[in-house]
Specification:
two-stranded antiparallel ribbon; single chain; 51% helix; mainly alpha; 4 helices
């Protein structure tokens, strides 16, 4: 008997599955995996976990560690008590983490622009000292104010139960993955 050689686990491109039948099979398999992971999260951490899905054919599915109604009620109650989360730091972000990621990206763009400004200045004025960019200083002060607003919102949402150091900006090298393992 001849052995089949497989290509092993490979990264799947994130796009809509074209075939309707294949899409249903994929939904079914991934739904089960998602529910299994949600169960593990609830078991290991004691967290209340709830997932609501609508299949491509329109059928509703749900998983919850307690009851979907209980989890939705808790979530809605929390959302009513924390309206500032909806409009995070005036940017329309739904959570502190997204606002922080946006701020980090903005800072990275500013740093890239500053690097190219310095390189251009060295090329045009090789013997001169590079002057301070006053506009950049204003932008950094604005970013600091946004960071303070995010910290304040974080402290309202996660008082003492969750420590998040927003002073650290991770430096992701190109090609490095940040999650989705």
């Amino acid at each position: 008997m001849e052995r089949r050689t497989s290509r092993g686990r490979q990264k799947i491109e994130m796009k809509l599955v074209e075939s309707k039948d294949a899409r249903y099979v994929t939904f079914s398999k991934r739904k089960l995996s998602l529910f299994r992971k949600a169960n593990e999260l609830s078991t290991f951490t004691g967290a209340d976990v709830g997932i609501l899905l609508i299949s491509p054919s329109g059928n509703p599915y749900s998983y919850s560690s307690t009851s979907v109604e209980q989890i939705t009620d808790k979530f809605l109650e929390w959302k009513l008590k924390n309206p500032q989360v909806v409009d995070q730091a005036g940017r329309g972000k739904a959570n502190v983490f997204q606002a922080f990621d946006d701020l980090r990206e903005e800072l990275q763009i500013m740093n890239e622009k500053e690097k190219s400004r310095k390189i251009r200045y060295k090329i045009l004025h090789p013997d001169s000292e590079i002057p301070v960019d006053k506009h950049r200083l204003d932008q950094l002060i604005e970013l600091k104010l946004k960071l303070d607003a995010i910290k304040a919102a974080k402290n309202k949402i996660f008082p003492e139960q969750f420590k998040l150091d927003l002073n650290v900006v991770p430096n992701l090298d190109e090609g490095e993955c940040s999650g989705n393992h």
